[in-house]
Amino acid sequence: MAGALHGLKVIDMSRYIAGPFCGQLLGDLGADVIKVERIDGGEEGRRVGEAVAGDTFFFLSANRNKRGLAVDFRDPESQALLADLAAEADILVENFRPGTLEAMGMDWDSLRARNPGLILVRITGFGQDGPLAQHPCFDGAAQAISGLMAMTGRHDGPPTMSGVFVCDYTTALYATIAALAAVRARAETGLGQVVEATLMDSGLALMTTAIPEYLVNGDLPPRLGNRDRYLSPSHCFRGRDGGWIYIVAGNDQHFHRFAAAMGKPELADDPLYATFVARNANVDTLEELIDGWAADHDSEEILEKLHEADIPCEKVATIADVVANPQVLHRRQIVDVPHPVAGSIPFQAPALKLWGTPTEIARGAPGLGEHSGDILKDWLGYSDADVRRAEEQGLI
Asked: What total of structural domains would you count in the chain?
């Protein structure tokens, strides 16, 4: 069965994470995604981190379900070739520094003059204009400037970066949502548009109530480590066997059941802990009580007791735990992605589940320029002779 976006043509000229992951999501949903890279070595992600069978996990993780085209970005004829492809595309994704696409002769006015229905997805650190527009930006910098880093870490420790690239991946999600919204709008108007997503804006969006709380009440959010900002107890507790359990029993109903499961039902009526306001005010002593209880039980015993009491809690899993988790396996969230040398490499499956038009991993990440000739034939009607001339001229 064809994917939900079957027939949609996408050019992905981006690199690293946010742009490529947006392109991969569109590919997972069935779009024909063309990964465009520099002919002299490809995108930088091909050289980041550990490699398997000649390809880095970093690159493979964000570039499946794409066909590969390699061109000389600096050559005017190659730039003209890219403009020809953009004239046939539905979506073009780029994450160059502002002004780069314009310097290639692919400014918005020129692109839409040839293709009024084009949707141009522009991903940057800070936007196309403004005082920070030309600043380079990676995920950590976005976490820093958005306020996320100041809120992350132990209360008595330094600001801490998240363990994963949350701003990059959130930006990819926003870019994908915006692109699909623009496709829907085009169905009404016939016209494409520019959509923007930035790492800074995505970080701000993750701040939830912190910004209005400061602007209205002047409250600066503290770093709380593993504690929830609103409900207690919500924290990691260590069992007798050394295993860590994250327990969320902050609302009053949960806490009543939690206290009973601990064998301490009287805590639910204690004025120090009877309401979530009281528990927040006395969180230190409450956590000391729970620490003592947890230390007398193995982690699996804690999980069994609390799951039976219908308390939100889970083991703090290692990656080894995650890939063996029966729920992960039941939902088929680890899949083998094709690879030309290794045969296949296991990766996370698409997080999207569509019952009528399911996602499909039709191909792994492309080799550099692997499909250049086929793309020119399919999109631009090139003949074999045309492809050979492009290769001889060094355009692809």
From this structure: 2
Two tokens at 328?
Answer: 């992960």
Beta bridge partners of 234: 248
Catalytic residue among 168, 252, 296, 298: 168
Residue 76 lies in a domain: yes
Dump strand ranges (E) for the chain. 9-12, 32-38, 51-52, 55-56, 66-71, 91-94, 119-124, 194-198, 234-238, 244-248, 313-315, 334-339, 343-348
Query: d(Cα 3, Cα 353) in Å, to the nearest integer?
Result: 11
Of 39, 62, 91, nearest in space to 365 by CA: 62
Q: Looking at residues 83-97, what average pLDDT do you find?
A: 98
Cis bond upstream, residue 233 (ω within 30): yes
Strands 194-198 and 9-12, by their bridges, are: unpaired
In the prediction, which pLDDT does 108 show?
98
Distance separating the N- and C-terminal Cα atoms of the chain? 33
Class of residue 232 by CB neighbours under 10 A (exposed 0-12, middle 13-18, buried 19+): buried
Residue 68: count of CB within 10 angstroms of its CB: 21
Q: How many CA atoms lie within 13 A of 66 on its CB side?
A: 33
Which of 316, 347, 366 is the endpoint of a domain? 316
List the 244-248 sheet strands across, edge first: 234-238, 244-248, 313-315
Residues 245 and 193 in one domain: no
Q: Name the residue range of residue 72's domain.
A: 9-206+329-392
**What's the whole-number mean pLDDT along residues 164-183?**
98
| pLDDT at residue 63 is higher than 80 | yes
Give the domain CATH number at 286.
3.30.1540.10
Q: Are residues 249 and 340 in the same domain?
A: no
Are 161 and 90 in the same domain? yes
Cα R_g (the chain), whole angstroms = 25
Q: How far is CA 269 from CA 43, 159, 278, in A?
A: 61, 37, 11
pLDDT score, position 2: 87
At residue 97 the predicted structure's pLDDT band, cuts being 50, 70 and 90, is: very high
Give catalytic status of residue 378 as yes or no: no
